[in-house]
Design brief:
The chain has 276 residues and is of the alpha/beta class. Helix content is 36%, strand content 15%. It has a single domain, classed as Alpha-Beta Barrel (TIM Barrel), CATH 3.20.20.100. It is built from ten helices and ten strands. The relative contact order is 0.15. Bound molecules: adenosine-2'-5'-diphosphate.
Length: 276
Amino acid sequence: MTGGALTADGRALILNDGHQMPLLGLGVWQTRDGRDCVDAVRWALELGYRHIDTAQAYGNEESVGTGLLASGVPRDEVFITTKFFPGNPDPVAALEQSLRRLRVDHVDLYIIHWPQGGATWAWPGMERARELGYARSVGVSNFNVAQLDEVIGAGTIPPAVNQVQFSSFEYRRGLLEACQRRGVVLEAYSPLGTGRHLGDETVRRVADRVGRTPAQVLLRWCIQRDVPVIPKSTHRERIEANGDIFGFQLSDQDVRDLDALDRTGGTDRALEHPWW
Ligand code: A2P
């Protein structure tokens, strides 16, 4: 299976392992553990989100689990991602702990958070986690094309997803096209530039033109490319507005104006400044 085809309702993608992933998710990076995170997750689910993205490194999986329970939305309607912290030696043991914190019996997607120590060493453990039923799909994050190819070459199955920093300002066209050619879904983190891109003049101009907010414009730009987005917010009204991105279209001109904001030169790199 190639991966990346849209479902009939246009709200999810079919991954290369046959599972479906909603295009819109709530990200909880930099969301404080406790009340902030519990509320954000509960609100998102109440407002119709069906996808939550957390990580072992965020320290808030327990609050994600509490928010999920508090929402009353059945577990099997929600797509949950967590990420393997690669400072830990064993993806399976680390995921067992995540499942306990999240209070679920599997996650929908488990990805290597970054290629610390090389691209391939953790992959057998990721595949094992999938075989054990702890994760429906497995993938990577912050992997460039060469690292992706190493994993594909070494593994029994290819990654379903590569989650990277991606927006019209970080328009990694080379990486996006390489992922598409390999049937790997590129997923966008920091689609609002952690808030930095919201005040940009071009984004505001397009937002005025389409009668939407700058955040909705930046998110829609990803959705129109079939790129899943996981905007973060701890404000209910922002979570609601960020989810309201399926009822309008950016014109070709709007998309071209936003494409021109790219500062990566269409790179196939995952990150300009790796932190590991
Ligand atoms: P807050 O959590 O206080 O609402 P990204 O998803 O790119 O990481 O961006 C997240 C940042 O953008 C957070 O600081 C968040 O602030 C802010 N943010 C998210 N949605 C909106 C919105 N609709 N309007 C303004 N700021 C937003």
